[in-house]
Amino acid sequence: MWQSLHPSTQLKGAGIELENLWQQGPLAGVLVKLPANIEVQLFSTGSEFKAVVIRGVLNFLQAKTQQY
Predict the structure, then answer these.
(1) 0.85 cut: is pTM over it?
(2) Contact between 25 and 36 (Cβ < 8 Å)
(3) What digits encode the pLDDT tens for the residues 55-67?
């Protein structure tokens, strides 16, 4: 169940939903729901990025090494 009825200002597009899960200081956990067969690029300025893919494929590029 998506609690927030406000559209995301960070991600835009048909069928994209964003829900804040938690926040502790500058750190935050966010649930992103994307429609099937969509390609997006997510960027993080933090030193760490974690993702859980429930269904689909994630291609991850680490900026400092430029490796998949």
Answers:
(1) no
(2) no
(3) 888 877 776 655 5
CA distance 53 to 68: 16
Two tokens, residue 57: 């494929």
Residue with tokens 């649930």: 31
Lowest mean pLDDT among 15-19, 20-24, 32-36, 45-49: 45-49
Tell me how far apart the alpha carbons of residues 29 and 20 are, in angstroms, rounded to a whole number.
6
- If phi > 0 it is left, if psi is from -120 to 50 it is alpha, else beta; for residue 7 that is beta
- Pairwise CA distance, residues 15 & 22, whole Å: 22
Return mean pLDDT, the chain. 76
Closest to 29 measured CA to CA, from 57, 50, 46, 2? 50
